[in-house]
């Protein structure tokens, strides 16, 4: 079985079938990307893996254990952390306090390690530890969201649309960080509309369309796939 194994996952919101039998795998050490248009079901998949939504069917297994339907805090403790779409930082709290909240399942020593790691990965955040997070720039808020997700020292980090609304130079910086985090031993599952940059750093990827996976391949294969180029790479 793969490190993260998703089998026939189904997510419904009332009568809406948002995810209709999705299966995919992430192996230990990989960066894997899910690309797809708005409303394809990517966030629903990430939220279900994280325990925020209960699936209508299918299974999620991580590191040899079936974690389907487990509570979110149990899943964090098991080594999976989500950096959610839209960052979801706590705007009235400082950068430092936001980071500490990411360590809500961690020991004081692990919290200290996490704070140091965030400071090392994102020197700009370190300079702003005492700033109220709502006044950070969009890029800084995204760095904070990533730093906060890393506080639980996850084995697998899930990043949902980290590039949303950010300037290309900031996106470049963030993606370099993701590669670094991965090289330091964290497996990454990434959801992105910025398909070009995402596929560039990914070992493999899947295309999600209307709640289903229709195309899969290595990052290179997908970047060269005619359908993917036309639909997600602006026909480049
Ligand atoms: P985006 O890139 O725009 O975030 P996505 O691929 O992440 O899109 P989802 O957010 O998973 O897609 O949404 C999949 C489908 O489920 C959409 O049709 C959406 O309207 C619907 N949906 C998502 N959340 C809810 C909800 N809480 N209640 C009802 N429908 C929902």
From TrEMBL:
**A GO MF term:** ATP binding
Limits of the ABC transporter domain? 4-235
PROSITE patterns hit by this protein: ABC_TRANSPORTER_1 (PS00211), ABC_TRANSPORTER_2 (PS50893)
Q: Which GO terms describe its biological process?
A: L-amino acid transport
Protein's UniProt keywords contain Nucleotide-binding: yes
SMART domains in the cross-refs: AAA
Protein name, UniProt field? ABC transporter ATP-binding protein
Give the record's keywords alphabetically.
Answer: Amino-acid transport, ATP-binding, Nucleotide-binding, Transport
Return the Gene3D superfamilies for the record: P-loop containing nucleotide triphosphate hydrolases
Its taxonomic placement starts with:
Bacteria, Bacillati, Bacillota, Clostridia, Lachnospirales
Question: What protein family is recorded?
Answer: Belongs to the ABC transporter superfamily.
């Amino acid at each position: 079985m793969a490190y993260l194994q998703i089998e026939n996952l189904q997510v419904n919101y009332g009568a809406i079938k948002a995810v209709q039998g999705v299966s995919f795998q992430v192996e230990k050490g990989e960066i894997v990307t899910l690309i797809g248009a708005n409303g394809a079901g990517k966030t629903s998949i990430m939220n279900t893996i994280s325990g925020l939504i209960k699936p209508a069917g299918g299974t999620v297994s991580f590191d040899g254990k079936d974690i389907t339907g487990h509570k979110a805090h149990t899943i964090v403790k098991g080594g999976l952390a989500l950096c959610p779409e839209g960052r979801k930082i706590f705007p009235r709290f400082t950068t430092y306090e936001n980071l500490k909240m990411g360590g809500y399942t961690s020991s004081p020593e692990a919290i200290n390690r996490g704070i140091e790691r965030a400071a090392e990965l994102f020197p700009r955040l370190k300079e702003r530890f005492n700033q109220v997070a709502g006044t950070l720039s969009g890029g800084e808020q995204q760095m904070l969201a990533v730093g906060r997700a890393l506080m639980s020292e996850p084995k697998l980090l899930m990043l949902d649309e980290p590039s949303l609304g950010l300037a290309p130079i900031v996106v470049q910086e963030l993606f370099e960080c993701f590669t670094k985090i991965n090289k330091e031993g964290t497996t990454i599952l990434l959801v992105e509309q910025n398909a070009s940059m995402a596929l560039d750093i990914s070992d493999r990827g899947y295309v999600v369309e209307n709640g289903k996976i229709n195309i899969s391949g290595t990052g290179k294969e997908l970047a060269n796939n005619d359908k993917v180029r036309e639909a997600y790479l602006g026909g480049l």
